Amino acid sequence: MAVQPVVYGQSDRPPRGDYARASDDYTCAQNWASYSAEDHDTWRRLYARQSALLPGLATERFIALLPNLGASESIPRFAEINARLKPATGWEIVGVPGLIPEVPFFTLLANRKFPVTDWIRSPQEFDYVVEPDIFHDLFGHVPLLFDAAYADHIQAYGEGALKAHRLETSDPRCARAVEHLSRLYWYTIEFGLMREAGQIRAYGAGILSSPGELQHSVRSAEPQRMDLRFEADLLACMASTYKIDSYQAQYFVIDSFQALLDLTAPDFTPHYQQLAQAA
Ligand code: HBI
Ligand code: FE
After folding, report:
1. Average per-residue pLDDT in the chain?
2. Ligand nearest to the CA of 5
């Protein structure tokens, strides 16, 4: 079935990926032979620049797990990563042509399948690419899938997001539940900070894959940094809008992945009802 292309947030631009080759669940096999020498060189340069910036800015846990990607001189093969990832936390990465609709995205996460865009940015986009490419997804998201608590949280997010989608379509008191929950994803999995040995460190994929935001989010005096510890913090996070094309004005700081898993374990229905009333 030729799937409908979807681009998150930017409806006026054709999507980069070739959605015609994706299957019903939006996944497509990684065609490793199709990468050019220029593609591999872009990966090598992105990996070298970003990994040199990590010490003192990224969480030690991320730095320790990064070598699980295997290749730094060329684009990793998904099958080789999966040979290590599946036994570690039961996850596997699957190729996708780019951003996919919410319910297929949540369904993959709920089944411990992490969607990884299979194309890489052009050399001209070295410093910034509008849609997440393979470097953002592999370098930013995949190393922490080797951490048990983080891996459990991401699956719980997928299951919770499918529930939020059911709730917002069946219960008017839970209006915009998916949007509210997506903000939690944004402020943790994409742009989250963690307190580690009393220091602020980054674990969000959007920060870890960005040369500028890694420094800004951890060192700059500008942004607000709020604790994400208690239910009130969770509601504040889910009530906070975000920007997709500039540094965040605020960040949320967790104490550990286990603490995030515990904080988000209870039923979110009351949170959705409270947020729908407040808006
Ligand atoms: N699709 N491939 C891909 N990767 C994402 O990170 C992604 C997506 N679709 C939707 C989405 N993220 C977020 O908007 C969800 O929180 C809804
Ligand atoms: Fe991402």
Report:
1. 94
2. 1
